[in-house]
Amino acid sequence: MSPETNTSATRKRRASSSGKRGVATHEDRKLMAQNLEHTPRVLGFGNWIGFLVAGPGSTTSILVLILLMVSMWPGLGVVDCVLDWTAFPMTQQEVQGKVTSKTATGWSINEREQYVFEFEFTVDGETWDSWSYSCRSSAKTGSSVTVQYLPARVTVARIKGMSYSQLPGVVVLIGLIILSLCCIFAIRGYVKGCRWVRLMQRGEAIWLTLKSKKATNTSINDQRVYILTFEYEDSTGRPQTHVVMNYKNPELGGQRKTHLALCDSAVPSRCCLVTQLPLNVTLSTPGQWDSPTGKTWRTIIVRLVILVALLTTLGFLWK
Predict the structure, then answer these.
(1) 110 and 60 in a common domain
(2) What pLDDT shows up at residue 128?
(3) How far is CA 130 from the centre of its chain?
(4) What is the domain range of residue 222?
(5) Which pTM does this prediction carry?
(6) Is 19 helix (H, G, I), strand (E, B) or coil?
(7) Any idea which of 15-24, 87-96, 232-241, 251-260 has the lowest mean pLDDT?
């Protein structure tokens, strides 16, 4: 074999163990099975961070943080609407104030144009300012108005009969429902991620046998989605079935009928194909999962930047 051919073969072997999801060779699968026999396996710091910020439930968690940020945004969020529903109707603190400006928001509710009224008022000799929204009020700049304010937070105030929140209650209620659903999906995702972590650390390496492959009417990225049914025997000898949906891994459902998987010995019906583990993880060393690849690290860094920005904004809004 020439030096160039030998170098090319070495590069191919390195590529197969570096986390790239190509078509694995028989030697790759055999080596992986041997390395998986060592338990407990070390996940590594990089993979832990990857699971937290780029694993199951992470995308929904970012959406939850975005919705929370919107909900806390002054004049626009859920918090302001809740104050309209609860705090202001119960407060007895009222003073006279003066409208300093009246501006159209560009929104219409029930075919009525919405306006934002900025006003000022005085409490204990100190002047404060706030805002209110209304589609019905005829108040003008310079008009005298009755102001309701919260004694614990004088800056939170509205003109009596107007709204502290720009959004109608129905819109806020829909937003709360969406936020609740996102929280549920995020929690489910992280529970799934915890199961995968357990499988990666202590899961038993087994071989699944492909029994059926059924095409669906769904396509993702111009690739047909297939329902694959696998069978295997758990550690007690009982037959088990594992069903997955696949559209992006050409290795599944191909010519090969047996596939390597990890099975939870505590819950034998719970398993995961090695080729479908998240973050493109590989195991080239016995008992030690490889560090994330460069592409995965880029995803992790982008997610971390987004999370830090969202958490920082939430921190300022909370104050």
Answers:
(1) no
(2) 94
(3) 35
(4) 25-65+175-314
(5) 0.61
(6) coil
(7) 15-24
Closest CA to 54 of 317, 244, 306: 306
Dig out the tokens for 269 from the structure.
């019906």
pLDDT over threshold 90, residue 71: no
Does some domain include residue 7?
A: no
pLDDT in tens, 145-197: 999 998 888 888 999 989 888 877 777 778 778 888 888 888 888 888 888 88
The residue ranges of DSSP E strands in the chain, in sequence order, are 94-109, 112-123, 126-134, 144-150, 153-159, 204-220, 223-233, 239-246, 258-263, 271-273
117 lies in the same domain as 264: no
Single-letter residue type at 251 = E
CA distance 184 to 19: 31
**Same domain? 133 vs 152:** yes
What's the CA gap between 253 and 246, in Å, rounded? 9
Burial of 138 (0-12, 13-18, 19+ CB in 10 A): exposed
CATH code, domain with 106: 2.40.50
Same domain, 301 and 218: yes
> Residue with structure tokens 């304010």?
149
Per-residue model confidence (pLDDT) at position 92: 72
**Rounded mean pLDDT of 230-236?**
85
In terms of domains, do 160 and 179 share one? no
CA angle 104, 108, 113 (to 5 degrees): 45
- Token readout for 38 is 């060592």
The total of structural domains in the chain comes to 2
Is residue 119 scored above 80 in pLDDT? yes
What pLDDT, on a 0 to 100 scale, did the predictor assign at position 318? Answer: 61
Give, as one character, the DSSP assignment of residue 225: E
pLDDT above 90: residue 118: yes
